[in-house]
Structure formats: structure tokens, C-alpha cells
Amino acid sequence: MKLHTSLHKDFNKKKELVSKNGDVKFNNKKTNIDAKGKKKSSQKWLRRQVNDPFANAAKMEGYLARSAYKLLEINNKYDIFRDKKTIIDLGCTPGSWSQVILTSKNLQNKQVIGVDLLPVKFEHKNLYFIQGDFEDKNVQKEIVEKLKEITKNEKSKKADCIISDIALNNIGNAEIDRMRSERIIELELLFCEKYLSKNGNFVCKALKGADNSVFFTIKNMFEKVYRFKPKSSRKDSSEIFLVALGKK
């Protein structure tokens, strides 16, 4: 991961560095904020955001969200976008993953179909955004139509890479939350079966436990499958990413 030139000075002042292997190093100094008058839950969220080095780095580097670093870490380790042109970004709001793909100097000539219930905050000539629920068959039809449109000069009419950062709202019941996570991954895999090209890559978020039940299904579809917990993922988060390389 390379820092934007305009931000080098700020990072040096704060002694925040990027190591050769792509990891981000930060100082451990915490920031005090005035959260008086706000609900306790809001105070907790604000303090976590302000004291979060990745959230701070995202602001300095101009990323829409700290989740950008999760994708940077994944790509740094597994090189998921090499020779991949057409990418589907599920659960893309606010747009940080699409932003990484379409603005990184080492990722050239990519085109992204983004999908989310909420509008994105990132615009780019090569981002084709569809607002809707991926679980809705009509939304999936829209994705397929857009896929056909932007791959009109290619024979496959399929995506080269499908990534998903879909985050379902947890209801607090661990078993039900796990099952809901499994379900969305299964839907993503069904979509991959039809619309991900041979040798294509797939990345998805899973709650711990859900990754176990779908792991072997994914393994049967892809040459290699890895479980990966980015350093930029909060320690108290139960999320883990499944990285599947080389669709069979």
C-alpha cells in the first residue's frame, strides 16, 4: 500500500508509517473527545472511532471508511485482482472497496459493479452502482444485465472477481446470526457458480462459525481457499474473510 504524496508530511509528523509488507504502523497515543450530552452508546462509538488508528488513517488518506484497509491487506497478501478486469462489489456502501480498486495506482483499467441497499458516497466513471438488496432476484437480474453490458466485447459475459463485505445487522442471538451469515454466503456462491469466470476469485465476509459450514463447499469450487483476519479488523469483531482463488 502506498501513501498519497500529499499526506506524507502528515504521516511523518504523527510518526505513522507503512512497512514494506503493506502493514500500517501507528502510534498508540489515544485521543480524548468531548462526548458530553450524548447517549452512552454514542459516546462509546465516538471514542472508538477517534482512538481507532485505521479510522484516523482513512481520514488522512481520503478513504471513505476504515474498511478500505481490509481490502488493501487482503490484496496485499493474496493478489486477488491480478489480471482481473471486471469486479462485482457486494455490500459496497459507502464505497471504500470500490474506491481502493479504482484509485490505486497499481490497479489499472478495472471496472466495478457495486451493489448495496444504501447509496454510495464514491463516484467514478468505471463504477456502475445498483441500489438494492442482493438477496432480491430482481436486483441480481440487474447485476447480470449490467455485467453483459460492460463485458460486451468479451465472450464470457462473466465477472473476473466477486468480493463481498455485506454486513447483516446482528440480532444478538449467536446461532441465528451465524445461520444468516451462512445463508448470504450460500447465495453468493450460487451467483458465483453462474457469473464468475473460470479462474476467477471470490472474497466474502463471514461470522466466525459460518466460515466452517461453507468452507468445504467453497473448497470444492475453487483451487485454494484461505481464512483471513485482517489486522484492520477490530479485535472484538467476530468477522473473518474467506479468500477463494481460482474458480474450477
Order of strands, widest sheet: 5-4-3-6-7-9-8
- Uncertain segments are 1-36, 41-47
What class, by secondary structure content? alpha/beta
Tell me the name of the CATH homologous superfamily of the largest domain: Vaccinia Virus protein VP39
Query: What overall geometry do the principal axes of the alpha carbons give?
Result: globular
* Beta-strand content bin: 15-25%
Helix and strand pattern: HEEHHHEHEEHEHEHEE
| Helix count from the secondary structure assignment | 8
Helix content range: 25-40%
Number of domains: 2
Give average pLDDT, whole number. Answer: 81
N-to-C span? 30 Å
CATH architecture assignment name of the largest domain: 3-Layer(aba) Sandwich
- What is the number of E strands? 9
The biggest beta sheet, please? 7 strands, mixed
- Which value, in Å, is the CA radius of gyration? 18 Å
Topology:
Blueprint: H1 8-13, E1 17-18, E2 24-25, H2 40-50, H3 53-61, H4 68-78, E3 86-90, H5 96-103, E4 111-116, E5 127-131, H6 137-150, E6 159-164, H7 174-195, E7 196-207, H8 210-221, E8 222-228, E9 239-247
Parallel strand pairs: 3-4, 3-6, 4-5, 6-7
Antiparallel strand pairs: 1-2, 7-9, 8-9
Provide a descriptive summary of the structure in words.
- The protein is an alpha/beta fold and 248 residues long.
- It folds into 2 domains: 5-61, no CATH class; 68-247, 3-Layer(aba) Sandwich (Rossmann fold).
- The chain is built from 8 helices and 9 strands.
- The protein has a 7-stranded mixed beta sheet, with helices on both faces.
- Strand 1 and strand 2 form a beta hairpin.
- The longest helix has 22 residues, at 174-195.
- The relative contact order is 0.12.
